[in-house]
């Protein structure tokens, strides 16, 4: 009998130890689980990582997640490059096409042209291809006048086009198909000008928008020059215009849309 009581007491002590150990193990496991998986919705910005001790950065409610920022970067640009803040501010709010002509420097007649577009309601600009171009023989000026052989810097609307050849299919700007679009003589460096005005897009510098590029009205006076166009390149500098290869002019005529209020921003880099 005494032996049986002793065995019973031993079994009860063993059972109590097993329960204590089991309870400790369970509480340890549950505690670890609660630390590793915090409640959903908590802000854990700046908390140390358990394994590495490094600080984790978690996006707040007003900060785009990294993948979202990458997607935005892939879609477009929030600011058109190579322009000064002053030039950006002069771009009309309703403009959804901006043709940027960037001169190599203030005295160079070499430039690059890119057409930027944005969707309605979006502030992300999409860049098109980059094209080589020529501007005036002596470069750029903010105070253009007749005969200075410099292209006028600035932001100008694009509303009218024309040319000696018929408008390419898909042209949206009003187009004056006219045999008077003929360039006479030679260029600044003696190159022939034949075909230079096959396609023309008028730059609204010192002209009346809504008229043919051939219109001779000069609201600022004749001394301020005029007839500043985008036209076909003749393999040399211009007297004030911007010239591009024929296929580029055709592409621009198909792309520019008066419903998107296109403008040209032109001058040396950073103007």
Task: Provide a descriptive summary of the structure in words.
The protein has 271 residues and is an alpha/beta fold. 23% of the residues lie in helices and 20% in strands. It is globular. Mean pLDDT is 81; it is low at 1-10 and 13-63.
Q: Tell me the CATH superfamily of the largest domain.
A: L,D-transpeptidase catalytic domain-like
SS-derived structural category: alpha/beta
Order of helices and strands: HHHEEEEEEEEEEEHE
Q: Averaging pLDDT over every residue, what do you get?
A: 81
CATH class of the largest domain: Mainly Beta
Rg over alpha carbons? 35 Å
- CATH architecture assignment name of the largest domain: Beta Barrel
CATH topology call of the largest domain: L,D-transpeptidase catalytic domain-like
Q: Given the structure, what is the number of helices?
A: 4
Shape: globular
Strand line-up across the major sheet: 3-2-1-12-6
* Biggest sheet descriptor: 5 strands, mixed
**N/C terminus separation:** 108 Å
Uncertain stretches: 1-10, 13-63
Region (Disordered): 37-74
Protein name: L,D-TPase catalytic domain-containing protein
Biased composition (Basic and acidic residues): 41-50
Pathway: Cell wall biogenesis; peptidoglycan biosynthesis
